Amino acid sequence: MKNLYTLMALIGALFMAANAAATPATDAEFAQFKSAGATNFSAEHGKQNWGKEVASKDREKRSCTTCHDADLTKPGKHNTTKKVIEPMAPGVNKERYTDQKKIEKWFKRNCEWTWGRECTAQEKGDFLKFLMGAK
Amino acid sequence: MMQKSYKLVALLAAALLLNSGYAAAEEGFWSWIGAGTIDGWRGVGVVPVDNKQYKEECGSCHFAYQPGLLPTKSWEKLLTAEALHDHFGEVADLDKDTLQTLRDYVLNNAADKSMHKIAKKITIATDEGQNNTSDISSQDTYSDPISVEGVASQRAVGVFITSLTGTGNTVTLQKSVGSAGTWMDVASYTTDQQVSYNDSLDKQVVFYRLGVKAGGYVKGATRVTLSDFVGTRPLRITEVRYIKRKHNDIPAKMVKDNKDVKSLSYCNACHTKAEKGIFKEDTVSIPNYPDY
Questions:
Q1: pLDDT band, very low/low/confident/very high, at B195 (cuts 50, 70, 90)
Q2: Residue A11 included in any domain
């Protein structure tokens, strides 16, 4: 009997770990991305895009890491105002990805500022996958 | 009887304990005696931000500047969907409802809606700009001076002259650098006109006056007006004349060249109680310059 409990607890823990960062907000986001035609979300692609530098003619090169740290468990710093940006890793910052409106707001703003355009559903899904997986 | 007095003592003790608890936290104490609501009692220059959404939305990127730090007309221009899309180079889009909420809150609490000291000073500094008119009917008479500061177009001086043509009078524009008193001729006019003058003396405070010098008067009443075109609707708090003047004497090494300050925009880098709306000198602590 005792063993059974242990087993159940273990399975529970495993299950929770696998879904550590998933929240109703992220579920809703992925559903939205899928309905926009995106599929096969890849943390690997998200990671590549996170570091991708985009230049445009009248400004300096920009990437996600201009303001966020490349290490998602570390805080970043706003490029202009120098205000501290809390870590992106949900393992460190429990508030991350719990509010769908917030996720969308920052995707819109930051894609435009960094890449000069809005991100596609696929790009956003890849990003989210990558970010959620950070411990 | 005995029980009653015990009760009384216990009550008193409890009351005392409560009080001392409040007194321990100075601010709690002041609000406890009701002084927290009195304007300026503890040097509160602008009303602290008391809107959670404003604090969150604006404060996630920068110091959540109190609405009392700019007049209504400035905020009106800053807080539109279009303006926020290019918010000093940042993309600060807000959804429609949020923008409306924040805009309402800010406009209702803008500098000109407040009686707090700094808010009032800012209202005055941004009120109408400077505009001095004089009717001149004798020699050695001038308009009250105006001053310009800042850079480029911020320094434009408007010269308006009427009832001059045909009088034989000569109107002279004069300047005095740093303070009013040491006047030097800049230009002179013998006919009616409206012109803009810019001295390009960026970042210097220069005073101007317009009038008729000794020997320059013949007849009639010539009307002269001097005005500036700026300062009336600043989009940056650091462009408010009053704010600039207050920070004028702080050397660049302590602000711009101070790695922990960088710009006057970071109020709370030095103003330790900025968040509470307190900007008094004795609450200032400049990083790396503890003795200033």
A1: confident
A2: no
